[in-house]
Protein backbone atom coordinates (compact mmCIF):
# COMPACT_ATOMS: atom_id res chain seq x y z
CA UNK A 1 0.00 0.00 0.00
CA UNK A 2 2.78 2.38 0.92
CA UNK A 3 4.42 1.76 -2.41
CA UNK A 4 1.23 2.70 -4.17
CA UNK A 5 1.17 6.20 -2.73
CA UNK A 6 3.78 7.77 -5.01
CA UNK A 7 2.20 6.03 -7.95
CA UNK A 8 -1.17 7.62 -7.14
CA UNK A 9 0.31 11.08 -6.84
CA UNK A 10 1.90 10.78 -10.22
CA UNK A 11 4.93 12.61 -8.96
CA UNK A 12 8.09 12.58 -10.96
CA UNK A 13 10.15 13.68 -8.01
CA UNK A 14 9.11 11.85 -4.90
CA UNK A 15 12.17 12.79 -2.87
CA UNK A 16 11.29 16.46 -2.82
CA UNK A 17 7.91 16.92 -1.15
CA UNK A 18 7.86 20.64 -1.95
CA UNK A 19 7.34 19.78 -5.58
CA UNK A 20 3.82 18.47 -5.02
CA UNK A 21 1.84 20.25 -7.69
CA UNK A 22 -1.80 19.15 -8.03
CA UNK A 23 -2.20 21.02 -11.29
CA UNK A 24 0.72 19.37 -13.01
CA UNK A 25 -1.41 16.47 -14.22
CA UNK A 26 -3.45 18.76 -16.45
CA UNK A 27 -0.53 20.12 -18.44
CA UNK A 28 -0.72 19.59 -22.15
CA UNK A 29 2.52 18.52 -23.76
CA UNK A 30 3.16 18.44 -27.46
CA UNK A 31 4.25 15.00 -28.52
CA UNK A 32 4.56 15.68 -32.25
CA UNK A 33 4.86 19.27 -33.35
CA UNK A 34 2.69 19.93 -36.37
CA UNK A 35 1.83 23.29 -37.92
CA UNK A 36 -0.54 23.47 -40.86
CA UNK A 37 -1.21 26.86 -42.40
CA UNK A 38 -0.23 28.76 -39.27
CA UNK A 39 -2.59 26.69 -37.15
CA UNK A 40 -1.35 24.48 -34.38
CA UNK A 41 -2.28 20.88 -35.17
CA UNK A 42 0.23 19.35 -32.80
CA UNK A 43 -0.41 15.87 -31.53
CA UNK A 44 -0.58 16.37 -27.77
CA UNK A 45 -0.91 14.01 -24.85
CA UNK A 46 -4.58 14.99 -24.74
CA UNK A 47 -5.00 13.85 -28.34
CA UNK A 48 -3.04 10.68 -27.59
CA UNK A 49 -5.41 9.75 -24.79
CA UNK A 50 -8.43 10.55 -26.92
CA UNK A 51 -7.08 8.10 -29.49
CA UNK A 52 -6.43 5.55 -26.75
CA UNK A 53 -9.98 5.95 -25.46
CA UNK A 54 -11.49 5.52 -28.91
CA UNK A 55 -9.29 2.56 -29.81
CA UNK A 56 -9.92 0.89 -26.46
CA UNK A 57 -13.67 1.34 -26.67
CA UNK A 58 -13.85 0.25 -30.28
CA UNK A 59 -11.60 -2.75 -29.78
CA UNK A 60 -13.51 -3.83 -26.69
CA UNK A 61 -16.87 -3.62 -28.39
CA UNK A 62 -15.70 -5.30 -31.59
CA UNK A 63 -13.78 -8.11 -29.89
CA UNK A 64 -16.46 -8.93 -27.36
CA UNK A 65 -19.24 -9.07 -29.92
CA UNK A 66 -17.35 -10.68 -32.81
CA UNK A 67 -17.84 -14.24 -31.52
CA UNK A 68 -21.31 -13.55 -30.35
CA UNK A 69 -23.25 -16.46 -28.97
CA UNK A 70 -26.84 -16.84 -27.95
CA UNK A 71 -25.58 -17.39 -24.45
CA UNK A 72 -23.29 -14.41 -23.99
CA UNK A 73 -19.88 -14.76 -22.47
CA UNK A 74 -18.96 -12.47 -19.62
CA UNK A 75 -17.36 -9.78 -21.71
CA UNK A 76 -20.14 -9.96 -24.26
CA UNK A 77 -22.66 -9.33 -21.51
CA UNK A 78 -20.74 -6.21 -20.55
CA UNK A 79 -21.12 -4.88 -24.09
CA UNK A 80 -24.75 -5.89 -24.19
CA UNK A 81 -25.39 -4.25 -20.83
CA UNK A 82 -23.88 -1.02 -22.07
CA UNK A 83 -26.06 -1.21 -25.17
CA UNK A 84 -29.22 -1.98 -23.21
CA UNK A 85 -28.46 0.72 -20.67
CA UNK A 86 -28.11 3.47 -23.26
CA UNK A 87 -30.99 2.18 -25.37
CA UNK A 88 -33.37 2.17 -22.41
CA UNK A 89 -32.23 5.60 -21.36
CA UNK A 90 -32.81 7.01 -24.82
CA UNK A 91 -36.16 5.26 -25.25
CA UNK A 92 -37.39 6.54 -21.89
CA UNK A 93 -36.37 10.12 -22.57
CA UNK A 94 -37.07 10.56 -26.27
CA UNK A 95 -39.40 7.70 -27.23
CA UNK A 96 -38.87 5.21 -30.04
CA UNK A 97 -38.35 8.06 -32.50
CA UNK A 98 -35.24 8.92 -30.56
CA UNK A 99 -33.59 5.63 -31.45
CA UNK A 100 -32.23 7.12 -34.66
CA UNK A 101 -29.87 9.08 -32.43
CA UNK A 102 -28.69 5.96 -30.68
CA UNK A 103 -25.25 5.91 -32.35
CA UNK A 104 -24.59 9.49 -31.25
CA UNK A 105 -25.70 8.99 -27.67
CA UNK A 106 -23.93 5.67 -27.34
CA UNK A 107 -20.67 7.09 -28.73
CA UNK A 108 -20.83 10.08 -26.39
CA UNK A 109 -21.65 7.95 -23.38
CA UNK A 110 -18.89 5.44 -24.04
CA UNK A 111 -16.34 8.12 -24.85
CA UNK A 112 -17.03 10.12 -21.69
CA UNK A 113 -17.24 7.02 -19.51
CA UNK A 114 -14.03 5.45 -20.78
CA UNK A 115 -12.19 8.78 -20.75
CA UNK A 116 -13.27 9.36 -17.14
CA UNK A 117 -12.29 5.86 -16.07
CA UNK A 118 -8.95 5.88 -17.87
CA UNK A 119 -8.11 9.19 -16.23
CA UNK A 120 -8.20 7.47 -12.86
CA UNK A 121 -5.06 5.47 -13.62
CA UNK A 122 -1.90 6.98 -12.18
CA UNK A 123 0.17 8.94 -14.71
CA UNK A 124 -2.70 8.95 -17.18
CA UNK A 125 -4.17 12.09 -18.63
CA UNK A 126 -7.85 12.86 -18.08
CA UNK A 127 -9.28 14.11 -21.34
CA UNK A 128 -12.55 15.31 -19.83
CA UNK A 129 -10.83 17.54 -17.30
CA UNK A 130 -10.31 20.17 -20.00
CA UNK A 131 -13.25 22.43 -20.59
CA UNK A 132 -12.60 22.75 -24.30
CA UNK A 133 -13.09 19.01 -24.78
CA UNK A 134 -16.33 18.88 -22.81
CA UNK A 135 -17.53 22.06 -24.46
CA UNK A 136 -16.89 20.59 -27.89
CA UNK A 137 -18.92 17.52 -26.91
CA UNK A 138 -21.74 19.71 -25.59
CA UNK A 139 -21.72 21.86 -28.72
CA UNK A 140 -21.92 18.70 -30.82
CA UNK A 141 -25.07 17.74 -28.94
CA UNK A 142 -26.66 21.18 -29.07
CA UNK A 143 -25.86 21.71 -32.75
CA UNK A 144 -27.36 18.31 -33.52
CA UNK A 145 -30.49 19.36 -31.65
CA UNK A 146 -30.76 22.73 -33.38
CA UNK A 147 -29.98 21.51 -36.90
CA UNK A 148 -32.19 18.46 -36.66
CA UNK A 149 -34.95 20.52 -35.06
CA UNK A 150 -34.95 23.02 -37.90
CA UNK A 151 -34.71 20.27 -40.52
CA UNK A 152 -37.60 18.32 -39.09
CA UNK A 153 -39.94 21.07 -37.97
CA UNK A 154 -38.74 24.13 -39.84
CA UNK A 155 -39.71 27.36 -38.15
CA UNK A 156 -42.08 25.48 -35.87
CA UNK A 157 -39.00 24.51 -33.93
CA UNK A 158 -38.97 28.07 -32.57
CA UNK A 159 -42.14 27.20 -30.67
CA UNK A 160 -39.75 25.71 -28.17
CA UNK A 161 -39.14 29.20 -26.89
CA UNK A 162 -42.79 30.19 -26.64
CA UNK A 163 -44.47 28.72 -23.58
CA UNK A 164 -48.23 28.55 -23.79
CA UNK A 165 -50.45 30.40 -21.34
CA UNK A 166 -48.35 33.53 -20.98
CA UNK A 167 -50.05 36.94 -21.19
CA UNK A 168 -49.11 38.86 -24.33
CA UNK A 169 -47.34 41.68 -22.57
CA UNK A 170 -44.89 39.39 -20.83
CA UNK A 171 -44.24 37.34 -23.96
CA UNK A 172 -41.08 39.10 -25.20
CA UNK A 173 -39.56 38.88 -21.74
CA UNK A 174 -40.38 35.20 -21.33
CA UNK A 175 -39.12 34.38 -24.82
CA UNK A 176 -35.84 36.18 -24.12
CA UNK A 177 -35.45 34.27 -20.86
CA UNK A 178 -36.19 30.98 -22.60
CA UNK A 179 -33.62 31.71 -25.28
CA UNK A 180 -30.92 32.52 -22.75
CA UNK A 181 -31.93 29.43 -20.82
CA UNK A 182 -31.58 27.34 -23.97
CA UNK A 183 -28.20 28.87 -24.77
CA UNK A 184 -26.95 28.15 -21.28
CA UNK A 185 -27.45 24.43 -21.79
CA UNK A 186 -24.18 23.62 -23.54
CA UNK A 187 -22.31 25.73 -20.99
CA UNK A 188 -23.85 24.02 -17.98
CA UNK A 189 -23.52 20.62 -19.61
CA UNK A 190 -19.81 21.08 -20.27
CA UNK A 191 -18.99 22.95 -17.06
CA UNK A 192 -20.57 20.22 -14.95
CA UNK A 193 -18.51 17.40 -16.41
CA UNK A 194 -15.34 19.49 -16.49
CA UNK A 195 -15.71 20.80 -12.93
CA UNK A 196 -16.44 17.36 -11.52
CA UNK A 197 -13.43 15.75 -13.12
CA UNK A 198 -11.10 18.66 -12.34
CA UNK A 199 -12.17 18.99 -8.71
CA UNK A 200 -12.07 15.23 -8.13
CA UNK A 201 -8.59 14.80 -9.56
CA UNK A 202 -7.19 17.81 -7.70
CA UNK A 203 -8.65 16.58 -4.40
CA UNK A 204 -7.23 13.14 -5.00
CA UNK A 205 -3.84 14.57 -5.74
CA UNK A 206 -3.83 16.96 -2.79
CA UNK A 207 -4.56 14.12 -0.37
CA UNK A 208 -1.98 11.91 -2.02
CA UNK A 209 0.43 14.83 -1.72
CA UNK A 210 -0.21 14.89 2.03
CA UNK A 211 0.80 11.26 2.20
CA UNK A 212 4.07 11.99 0.46
CA UNK A 213 4.98 15.08 2.45
CA UNK A 214 4.02 13.52 5.78
CA UNK A 215 5.74 10.27 4.92
CA UNK A 216 8.93 12.14 4.08
CA UNK A 217 9.03 13.55 7.61
CA UNK A 218 9.52 10.07 9.04
CA UNK A 219 8.59 8.98 12.57
CA UNK A 220 5.34 10.60 13.64
CA UNK A 221 4.70 11.88 10.15
CA UNK A 222 4.81 8.31 8.94
CA UNK A 223 2.01 7.40 11.31
CA UNK A 224 0.09 10.54 10.46
CA UNK A 225 0.32 9.71 6.77
CA UNK A 226 -2.04 6.77 7.24
CA UNK A 227 -5.07 9.03 7.56
CA UNK A 228 -4.69 10.84 4.22
CA UNK A 229 -3.74 7.50 2.67
CA UNK A 230 -7.12 6.04 3.65
CA UNK A 231 -8.72 9.25 2.45
CA UNK A 232 -7.02 8.85 -0.92
CA UNK A 233 -8.24 5.26 -1.18
CA UNK A 234 -11.79 6.27 -0.29
CA UNK A 235 -11.66 9.18 -2.71
CA UNK A 236 -10.55 6.84 -5.49
CA UNK A 237 -13.71 4.84 -4.92
CA UNK A 238 -15.77 8.00 -4.91
CA UNK A 239 -14.09 9.12 -8.11
CA UNK A 240 -15.06 5.84 -9.77
CA UNK A 241 -18.66 6.59 -8.86
CA UNK A 242 -18.39 10.19 -10.08
CA UNK A 243 -16.80 9.05 -13.34
CA UNK A 244 -19.76 6.80 -14.04
CA UNK A 245 -22.36 9.23 -12.71
CA UNK A 246 -21.12 12.12 -14.81
CA UNK A 247 -21.06 10.05 -17.98
CA UNK A 248 -24.59 8.97 -17.16
CA UNK A 249 -25.77 12.53 -16.46
CA UNK A 250 -24.18 13.75 -19.67
CA UNK A 251 -25.94 11.04 -21.67
CA UNK A 252 -29.29 11.56 -19.93
CA UNK A 253 -29.25 15.28 -20.59
CA UNK A 254 -28.26 14.60 -24.19
CA UNK A 255 -31.35 12.40 -24.49
CA UNK A 256 -33.53 15.09 -22.95
CA UNK A 257 -32.24 17.75 -25.32
CA UNK A 258 -32.72 15.45 -28.29
CA UNK A 259 -36.28 14.98 -27.10
CA UNK A 260 -36.77 18.73 -27.50
CA UNK A 261 -35.62 18.49 -31.10
CA UNK A 262 -37.99 15.60 -31.79
CA UNK A 263 -41.06 17.01 -30.04
CA UNK A 264 -40.66 20.79 -29.69
CA UNK A 265 -44.22 21.44 -28.53
CA UNK A 266 -45.28 18.60 -26.29
CA UNK B 1 -3.43 56.32 -9.14
CA UNK B 2 -3.59 54.72 -12.50
CA UNK B 3 -7.14 54.75 -13.86
CA UNK B 4 -6.80 51.11 -14.88
CA UNK B 5 -5.80 50.09 -11.38
CA UNK B 6 -8.66 52.07 -9.87
CA UNK B 7 -11.03 50.20 -12.17
CA UNK B 8 -9.90 46.83 -10.89
CA UNK B 9 -10.00 47.96 -7.28
CA UNK B 10 -13.51 49.32 -7.79
CA UNK B 11 -14.62 46.03 -9.32
CA UNK B 12 -13.18 44.18 -6.36
CA UNK B 13 -14.96 46.45 -3.87
CA UNK B 14 -18.24 46.05 -5.79
CA UNK B 15 -17.91 42.29 -5.46
CA UNK B 16 -18.01 42.64 -1.67
CA UNK B 17 -21.75 43.07 -2.12
CA UNK B 18 -21.93 39.46 -3.22
CA UNK B 19 -20.90 38.55 0.30
CA UNK B 20 -24.14 40.04 1.58
CA UNK B 21 -26.08 37.89 -0.84
CA UNK B 22 -24.07 34.92 0.37
CA UNK B 23 -25.03 35.62 3.98
CA UNK B 24 -28.66 36.00 2.94
CA UNK B 25 -28.65 32.72 1.01
CA UNK B 26 -27.06 30.96 3.94
CA UNK B 27 -29.80 32.27 6.22
CA UNK B 28 -32.53 31.25 3.81
CA UNK B 29 -31.30 27.73 3.16
CA UNK B 30 -30.32 27.21 6.78
CA UNK B 31 -33.73 28.23 8.03
CA UNK B 32 -35.40 26.14 5.37
CA UNK B 33 -33.40 23.15 6.45
CA UNK B 34 -34.17 23.80 10.13
CA UNK B 35 -37.86 24.03 9.34
CA UNK B 36 -37.74 20.98 7.08
CA UNK B 37 -36.11 18.89 9.79
CA UNK B 38 -38.78 19.91 12.29
CA UNK B 39 -41.62 19.13 9.92
CA UNK B 40 -40.36 17.04 7.00
CA UNK B 41 -43.83 16.48 5.59
CA UNK B 42 -44.29 20.18 4.92
CA UNK B 43 -40.85 20.62 3.36
CA UNK B 44 -41.74 19.73 -0.22
CA UNK B 45 -44.65 22.14 -0.30
CA UNK B 46 -42.44 25.05 0.65
CA UNK B 47 -39.76 24.35 -1.92
CA UNK B 48 -41.25 26.87 -4.34
CA UNK B 49 -41.03 29.61 -1.73
CA UNK B 50 -37.46 28.59 -1.03
CA UNK B 51 -36.65 29.13 -4.69
CA UNK B 52 -38.51 32.45 -4.63
CA UNK B 53 -36.50 33.63 -1.63
CA UNK B 54 -33.35 32.41 -3.32
CA UNK B 55 -34.21 34.37 -6.48
CA UNK B 56 -34.99 37.63 -4.68
CA UNK B 57 -31.89 37.43 -2.50
CA UNK B 58 -29.63 36.43 -5.32
CA UNK B 59 -31.00 39.29 -7.44
CA UNK B 60 -29.42 41.78 -5.05
CA UNK B 61 -26.15 39.91 -5.27
CA UNK B 62 -26.43 40.00 -9.03
CA UNK B 63 -26.72 43.79 -8.89
CA UNK B 64 -23.32 44.06 -7.26
CA UNK B 65 -21.92 41.61 -9.78
CA UNK B 66 -23.41 43.87 -12.45
CA UNK B 67 -21.63 46.90 -11.04
CA UNK B 68 -18.38 44.95 -10.93
CA UNK B 69 -18.80 43.85 -14.55
CA UNK B 70 -19.65 47.38 -15.60
CA UNK B 71 -16.54 48.67 -13.88
CA UNK B 72 -14.49 46.06 -15.73
CA UNK B 73 -16.05 46.02 -19.19
CA UNK B 74 -18.59 48.82 -19.32
CA UNK C 1 -76.93 -41.84 1.53
CA UNK C 2 -74.75 -43.08 -1.18
CA UNK C 3 -76.77 -41.08 -3.76
CA UNK C 4 -76.69 -38.12 -1.53
CA UNK C 5 -73.11 -38.60 -1.14
CA UNK C 6 -72.72 -39.03 -4.84
CA UNK C 7 -74.82 -35.97 -5.49
CA UNK C 8 -73.09 -33.95 -2.98
CA UNK C 9 -69.89 -35.12 -4.47
CA UNK C 10 -71.14 -34.66 -8.01
CA UNK C 11 -72.32 -31.13 -7.55
CA UNK C 12 -69.11 -29.84 -6.26
CA UNK C 13 -67.49 -31.91 -8.94
CA UNK C 14 -69.61 -30.22 -11.62
CA UNK C 15 -69.24 -26.76 -10.27
CA UNK C 16 -65.67 -27.66 -9.61
CA UNK C 17 -65.26 -28.50 -13.30
CA UNK C 18 -66.87 -25.25 -14.31
CA UNK C 19 -65.02 -23.27 -11.75
CA UNK C 20 -61.87 -25.10 -12.71
CA UNK C 21 -62.18 -23.54 -16.16
CA UNK C 22 -63.02 -20.25 -14.52
CA UNK C 23 -60.20 -20.79 -12.13
CA UNK C 24 -57.90 -21.44 -15.05
CA UNK C 25 -58.86 -18.14 -16.62
CA UNK C 26 -58.74 -16.39 -13.31
CA UNK C 27 -55.42 -17.93 -12.54
CA UNK C 28 -54.04 -16.74 -15.82
CA UNK C 29 -55.49 -13.29 -15.26
CA UNK C 30 -54.03 -13.24 -11.79
CA UNK C 31 -50.70 -14.40 -13.13
CA UNK C 32 -50.80 -11.68 -15.75
CA UNK C 33 -51.69 -9.13 -13.10
CA UNK C 34 -48.88 -10.32 -10.92
CA UNK C 35 -46.46 -10.19 -13.79
CA UNK C 36 -47.57 -6.69 -14.70
CA UNK C 37 -47.47 -5.62 -11.09
CA UNK C 38 -44.00 -7.02 -10.58
CA UNK C 39 -42.80 -5.37 -13.74
CA UNK C 40 -44.41 -2.10 -12.72
CA UNK C 41 -42.88 -2.19 -9.25
CA UNK C 42 -39.55 -3.10 -10.74
CA UNK C 43 -39.80 -0.06 -12.95
CA UNK C 44 -40.94 2.11 -10.07
CA UNK C 45 -38.08 0.84 -8.00
CA UNK C 46 -35.71 1.63 -10.78
CA UNK C 47 -37.11 5.13 -10.98
CA UNK C 48 -36.95 5.54 -7.23
CA UNK C 49 -33.37 4.33 -7.25
CA UNK C 50 -32.60 6.78 -9.99
CA UNK C 51 -34.20 9.60 -8.03
CA UNK C 52 -32.24 8.61 -4.95
CA UNK C 53 -29.06 8.50 -6.97
CA UNK C 54 -29.98 11.81 -8.43
CA UNK C 55 -30.34 13.27 -4.98
CA UNK C 56 -26.86 12.30 -3.87
CA UNK C 57 -25.79 15.63 -2.41
CA UNK C 58 -22.60 16.47 -4.23
CA UNK C 59 -23.89 15.64 -7.71
CA UNK C 60 -27.08 17.57 -7.10
CA UNK C 61 -25.27 20.61 -5.73
CA UNK C 62 -22.90 20.74 -8.68
CA UNK C 63 -25.79 20.27 -11.08
CA UNK C 64 -27.89 23.11 -9.64
CA UNK C 65 -25.08 25.58 -9.21
CA UNK C 66 -23.73 24.88 -12.68
CA UNK C 67 -27.21 25.40 -14.14
CA UNK C 68 -27.49 28.76 -12.40
CA UNK C 69 -23.98 30.00 -13.05
CA UNK C 70 -24.00 28.90 -16.68
CA UNK C 71 -27.09 30.97 -17.44
CA UNK C 72 -25.56 34.07 -15.83
CA UNK C 73 -22.32 33.55 -17.74
CA UNK C 74 -24.17 33.15 -21.02
CA UNK C 75 -26.21 36.27 -20.31
CA UNK C 76 -23.09 38.31 -19.62
CA UNK C 77 -21.38 36.93 -22.71
CA UNK C 78 -24.34 37.80 -24.95
CA UNK C 79 -24.63 41.28 -23.45
CA UNK C 80 -20.93 41.97 -23.78
CA UNK C 81 -20.77 40.82 -27.39
CA UNK C 82 -23.89 42.84 -28.18
CA UNK C 83 -22.34 45.93 -26.63
CA UNK C 84 -19.17 45.49 -28.65
CA UNK C 85 -21.08 44.83 -31.81
CA UNK C 86 -23.85 47.44 -31.56
CA UNK C 87 -22.09 49.95 -29.33
CA UNK C 88 -24.95 50.08 -26.84
CA UNK C 89 -22.66 49.97 -23.85
CA UNK C 90 -23.53 49.47 -21.06
CA UNK C 91 -27.17 48.60 -21.61
CA UNK C 92 -26.68 45.27 -23.32
CA UNK C 93 -24.64 44.01 -20.41
CA UNK C 94 -27.19 45.19 -17.84
CA UNK C 95 -30.23 43.80 -19.64
CA UNK C 96 -28.69 40.46 -20.54
CA UNK C 97 -27.16 39.95 -17.13
CA UNK C 98 -30.63 40.28 -15.61
CA UNK C 99 -32.08 38.03 -18.31
CA UNK C 100 -29.34 35.53 -17.64
CA UNK C 101 -30.15 35.67 -13.95
CA UNK C 102 -33.83 35.01 -14.65
CA UNK C 103 -32.89 32.17 -16.99
CA UNK C 104 -30.67 30.75 -14.27
CA UNK C 105 -33.57 30.71 -11.81
CA UNK C 106 -35.74 29.08 -14.48
CA UNK C 107 -33.01 26.48 -15.03
CA UNK C 108 -32.82 25.72 -11.33
CA UNK C 109 -36.59 25.40 -11.11
CA UNK C 110 -36.57 23.05 -14.09
CA UNK C 111 -33.79 20.97 -12.63
CA UNK C 112 -35.65 20.59 -9.34
CA UNK C 113 -38.92 19.82 -11.09
CA UNK C 114 -40.66 22.97 -9.88
CA UNK C 115 -41.46 24.02 -13.41
CA UNK C 116 -42.51 22.33 -16.60
CA UNK C 117 -39.92 21.53 -19.24
CA UNK C 118 -39.42 23.55 -22.40
CA UNK C 119 -42.51 24.21 -24.48
CA UNK C 120 -45.05 23.87 -21.66
CA UNK C 121 -46.75 26.46 -19.53
CA UNK C 122 -44.30 28.88 -18.02
CA UNK C 123 -46.54 31.09 -15.91
CA UNK C 124 -44.00 31.41 -13.13
CA UNK C 125 -41.33 32.99 -15.28
CA UNK C 126 -42.86 36.43 -15.39
CA UNK C 127 -43.12 36.71 -11.62
CA UNK C 128 -39.54 35.69 -11.11
CA UNK C 129 -38.23 38.51 -13.22
CA UNK C 130 -39.22 41.21 -10.75
UniProtKB/TrEMBL annotation, chain B:
Gene Ontology CC terms: plasma membrane; proton-transporting ATP synthase complex; proton-transporting two-sector ATPase complex, proton-transporting domain
Membrane topology of this protein: Multi-pass membrane protein
Domain V-ATPase proteolipid subunit C-like as annotated: residue spans: 9-70
UniProt keyword annotations, A-Z: ATP synthesis, Cell membrane, CF(0), Hydrogen ion transport, Hydrolase, Ion transport, Lipid-binding, Membrane, Transmembrane, Transmembrane helix, Transport
The keyword Iron belongs to this UniProt entry's keyword annotation: no
Sequence intervals crossing the membrane: 6-29, 50-73
Protein location: Cell membrane; Membrane
Marked site positions, Reversibly protonated during proton transport: 58
InterPro entries membership: ATP_synth_F0_csu (IPR000454), ATP_synth_F0_csu_sf (IPR038662), ATPase_proteolipid_c-like_dom (IPR002379), F/V-ATP_Csub_sf (IPR035921)
MF annotations from Gene Ontology: hydrolase activity; lipid binding; proton-transporting ATP synthase activity, rotational mechanism
Primary localisation category: membrane
The family this protein is said to belong to: Belongs to the ATPase C chain family.
Physiological role: F(1)F(0) ATP synthase produces ATP from ADP in the presence of a proton or sodium gradient. F-type ATPases consist of two structural domains, F(1) containing the extramembraneous catalytic core and F(0) containing the membrane proton channel, linked together by a central stalk and a peripheral stalk. During catalysis, ATP synthesis in the catalytic domain of F(1) is coupled via a rotary mechanism of the central stalk subunits to proton translocation.
Protein's recorded name: ATP synthase subunit c
Organism: Zhengella mangrovi
Underlying gene: atpE
Automatic annotation (TrEMBL), chain C:
Positions with biased composition (Basic and acidic residues): 32-49
Transmembrane segments: 61-82, 88-109
Domain of life (superkingdom): Bacteria
Entry-linked Pfam families: ATPase_gene1 (PF09527)
The keyword Transcription is assigned to this record: no
InterPro entries: Atp1_alphaprobac, ATPase_put
Region Disordered, annotated ranges: 1-25, 32-51
Entry GO CC: proton-transporting ATP synthase complex
This protein's UniProt keywords: Hydrogen ion transport, Ion transport, Membrane, Transmembrane, Transmembrane helix, Transport
Listed GO biological process terms: proton transmembrane transport
Family the UniProt entry places it in: Belongs to the bacterial AtpI family.
Biological function: A possible function for this protein is to guide the assembly of the membrane sector of the ATPase enzyme complex.
The name this protein goes by in its record: ATP synthase protein I
Source species: Zhengella mangrovi
Classification of source organism: Bacteria, Pseudomonadati, Pseudomonadota, Alphaproteobacteria, Hyphomicrobiales
Amino acid sequence: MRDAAPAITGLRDVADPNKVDPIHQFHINKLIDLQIGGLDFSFTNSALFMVIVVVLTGAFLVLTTSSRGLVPSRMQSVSEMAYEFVANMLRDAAGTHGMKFFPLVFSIFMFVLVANLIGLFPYFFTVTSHIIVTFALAMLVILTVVIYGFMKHGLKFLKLFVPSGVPGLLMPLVVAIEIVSFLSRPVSLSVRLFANMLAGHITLKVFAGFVVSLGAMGGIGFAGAILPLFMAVALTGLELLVAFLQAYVFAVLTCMYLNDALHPSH
Amino acid sequence: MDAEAAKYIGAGIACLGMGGAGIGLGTIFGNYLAGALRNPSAADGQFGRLIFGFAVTEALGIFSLLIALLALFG
Amino acid sequence: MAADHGDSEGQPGKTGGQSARDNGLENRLRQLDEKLASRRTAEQEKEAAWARNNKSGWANAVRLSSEFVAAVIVGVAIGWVLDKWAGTSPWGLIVFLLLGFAAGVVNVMRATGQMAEFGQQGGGTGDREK
